[in-house]
Amino acid sequence: MTTDPGDIVWHDHSVSRESREARLGQRGVVVWLTGLSGCGKSTIANALDRQLNEQGRATMLLDGDNIRHGLCAPPAALVQEHGQEFADRFGLGFGATDREENIRRIGSVASLMASAGLITLTAFVSPYRADRDRVRGIVTAAGRDTDFVEVFVDTPLEICESRDPKGLYKKARAGEIKHFTGISDPYEAPREPEIHLRGGDDRTPDQQAAEIRQWLAERGVLG
Ligand SMILES: Nc1ncnc2c1ncn2[C@@H]1O[C@H](COP(=O)(O)OS(=O)(=O)O)[C@@H](OP(=O)(O)O)[C@H]1O
Ligand SMILES: Nc1ncnc2c1ncn2[C@@H]1O[C@H](COP(=O)(O)OP(=O)(O)O)[C@@H](O)[C@H]1O
């Protein structure tokens, strides 16, 4: 038993991770898709989610836009229910510190899901190497070194911008959005991702998802 700072005591569970994974017939992992806005993260993650479920695997998908409606909501979404001081303190935007907290929260939740034996798919820009590396540390400390699978969805900025499905690149170019990744905010590409997906070629999202699924299967994640 370890005593964390502030005398918060960790409780070991009576149901082990191994027994949860054995019952599901799979390994719990975090498949962390990172890349520019518009690179294809969400589409590929959804395709992979569908393919894995069709195979009978237990999964969960966490996506940047969706999580920012709840767990990591902006101040404007919190102020009515919680008041301005709470909203300013806990609401998240896109400054570097806010993104650090966004990824810290998601990394902790994703690690819990992997510990439950789920193949946990996460699709977040997560532009800062240090933030992604901290999540890697959280996930692997809770399980195995191989439980964190970083997938770099490497779609050139020009293609992401030409897609611009939400019109955000246009707004960013017009200066209407501050700190926009790739335009007015940095993106630190993974140096050694487990999977380097080249985006913007003629492969479909299903084909890109199948590449990730094959990688997982070859390493015994899918039982
Ligand atoms: N300033 C800025 N920079 C980047 N992205 C922005 C920004 N403002 C809004 N959006 C939309 O928010 C989505 C990114 O949220 P994430 O939680 O994935 O970002 S991060 O991981 O905290 O960097 C991202 O969704 P995706 O396009 O699916 O990546 C954008 O649509
Ligand atoms: N392999 C692909 N080929 C062609 N278009 C794609 C591909 N993957 C994604 N897209 C398209 O690119 C746009 C952005 O995809 P999305 O998954 O929302 O990216 P992200 O989640 O990284 O912002 C969408 O219109 C989507 O349909």
Automatic annotation (TrEMBL):
Top-level taxon in the UniProt lineage: Bacteria
Reactions catalysed according to its record: adenosine 5'-phosphosulfate + ATP = 3'-phosphoadenylyl sulfate + ADP + H(+)
GO molecular function, one term: sulfate adenylyltransferase (ATP) activity
Residues reported to bind ATP: G35, L36, S37, G38, C39, G40, K41, S42
One Pfam family from the record: APS_kinase
GO cellular component, one term: cytoplasm
Residue stretches making up the APS kinase domain: 27-197
Enzyme class: transferase
Functional pathway: Sulfur metabolism; hydrogen sulfide biosynthesis; sulfite from sulfate: step 2/3
One record GO biological process: hydrogen sulfide biosynthetic process
E.C. number: 2.7.1.25
Span of the signal peptide: none
InterPro entries assigned to the protein according to its UniProt record, in alphabetical order: APS, APS_kinase_dom, P-loop_NTPase, Sulf_AdTrans/APS_kinase
Active site: S126 (phosphoserine intermediate)
CDD domains: APSK
Keywords of this entry: ATP-binding, Kinase, Nucleotide-binding, Phosphoprotein, Transferase
Job description of the protein: Catalyzes the synthesis of activated sulfate.
Family the UniProt entry places it in: Belongs to the APS kinase family.
Descriptive protein name: Adenylyl-sulfate kinase
Gene: cysC
